[in-house]
């Protein structure tokens, strides 16, 4: 019976997808930013780890009324205006680097990043090497139908779905996990170079002493790594043959120690310029989490959904939180799945997304508001030294929040 229901669901999904495509995609609008600044966005070309890619850069903007909002996809529109003048009235601004999830893209979380910019941050988000489900200024490599089919075949479980969709990408990168922190640091290098370039819109608008990193899923791993969560591989070196390309089991494919050349420095992924981190639904590919978490020395906030099938496991997040030094914060959102932080997901097919992903099904605006409120309050306090929103850090902002916190 269950198999019949699943197959019927698959047929229904494919039918609705085809019907939706035939009728034309409906325009989806992201949630509006809450801050005092209007928002601009520029699309930059840069090199990361020796390859050409793009990054979206959001910033406080001086805009005339009626300026057209930028469309991140054919049917997905934000509130930022492309190439708008930068409002320098509050400069220099803190820099926040955003790292997308496995197969995502730099513009996957529009409401989140536009909102940070509206509160006086310059936010830079690159397309990492594994970008596929969306791209900055380009169509996706993976269709919604492929995503839907992979989800159905995996029984709606996040891990198998991700592997089914991206196993070729993973193989192309030699199952690499540690290239991401390199790309994150190079992205920050690029932004700070623009800050010194007299011909750049960002000239003298970034405070290099106030840098934060935030990221989703694999980008959460990236965030933890550059924020100083060490990779203690000594004594846990992979077994012989475990790191070969052929025949690896899924568990071995997730072992970041396979790419470590020098086991003497567990902090080799850390970027000392980073002053605060906020991982979202983090993939915690780290051995010895208790020890590693205790060695982070900067403020950390972690936000997760509570879905048992379509979210990264809560247990590693809680282990990290319990062993962090203060200041530390952990927020869990009820009835929320892994993709809720990525409003670009709605561009695929809003009807089906809301049907199959619980994070979008009900109360999505309130859940998005929680992401916005906590991220601004956290970065304001620990990058700007601004406590005007610090009260937000002391409890739930709405009914979808389960919350733990601890302060000095």
CATH architecture: 3-Layer(aba) Sandwich
What structural class do you assign from the helix and strand content?
A: alpha/beta
Helix content: 25-40%
How many separate helices? Answer: 12
Total separate domains: 1
Could you tell me the CATH topology label: Rossmann fold
Provide a descriptive summary of the structure in words:
The protein has 408 residues and is of the alpha/beta class. It has one domain: Alpha/Beta hydrolase fold, catalytic domain (Rossmann fold, 3-Layer(aba) Sandwich). It has 12 helices and 14 strands. Strands 2, 3, 6, 7, 8, 9, 10, 11, 12, 13 and 14 form an 11-stranded mixed β-sheet that branches. It has a 3-stranded mixed β-sheet with strand order 1-5-4, with no helix packed on it. Helix 5 crosses helix 6. It is globular and about 60 Å long. The protein starts with a helix and ends with a strand. The relative contact order is 0.13. The N terminus is likely disordered.
Summarize the structure.
This protein is of the alpha/beta class. It has one domain: Rossmann fold (3-Layer(aba) Sandwich), CATH 3.40.50.1820. It has helices at residues 2-23, 110-118, 144-153, 158-172, 179-196, 218-226, 250-253, 289-293, 314-323, 350-356, 358-361, 364-384; strands at residues 28-29, 38-48, 51-62, 71-73, 76-77, 81-82, 85-86, 93-99, 122-126, 206-216, 274-280, 300-305, 328-333, 401-406.
